[in-house]
């Protein structure tokens, strides 16, 4: 069976720059979100200009030195696997800047991109700045690291990572954010970058809209990304397999206002009993 157009796989072998995954607004067919993943060997360097985009570098695993035009941070990073569930080290880099990332150990780094306005300087986002959050209840309980939430400075980017224990659901009850209808709902494009433990497992993600002109149920493997151009997008972690994902969102207004699927909103009321 052919892969869904909503799934973007990682390459099994990095290219010369270490890149294993690339999503651009052009490849996704939208306007705001870009997302890349690099796997660098110890001593390998990644150098990029940010151009018109602001960037959030998220150290998925490993230690690195990172420099921008005016700043430098040595040996940042701590976790060797996302499933240690430690908050990550991240670096915000504005547009019209550059970054040089040198791998101190083998490194996996996500490069989250969206349009920038040059409002804020480059900065380190340390784990101590991220307060772990619990969402949901029962078998929809999951654990959140808000890396770049809307109450922290950026021009467009919203970045968050989620840990879904095996047998649990997340992004649930289903919600969407595909209409520019503030204050009720904001338009935000979104990518999900999935990791699965053990790696040979899978996650299930459904992406569907109200009239079901979009309605896909996806089996997502370790290292694959899912595009959410519109609609609701819940995730399920099968028994035996813990699931992590890194979300990147951006749109015309930097605010996360979501609309719950009315068919399933009753579940929230059950949680308050």
Automatic annotation (TrEMBL):
* Protein keywords: Isomerase
Any one GO BP annotation for this protein = inositol catabolic process
Task: Give the Enzyme Commission number.
Answer: 5.3.1.30
Q: Keyword Phosphoprotein: yes or no?
A: no
Which Pfam families does the annotation name? KduI
- MF-aspect GO terms: 5-deoxy-D-glucuronate isomerase activity; glucuronate isomerase activity
Q: What is this protein called?
A: 5-deoxy-glucuronate isomerase
Instruction: List the source organism.
Output: Paenibacillus cremeus
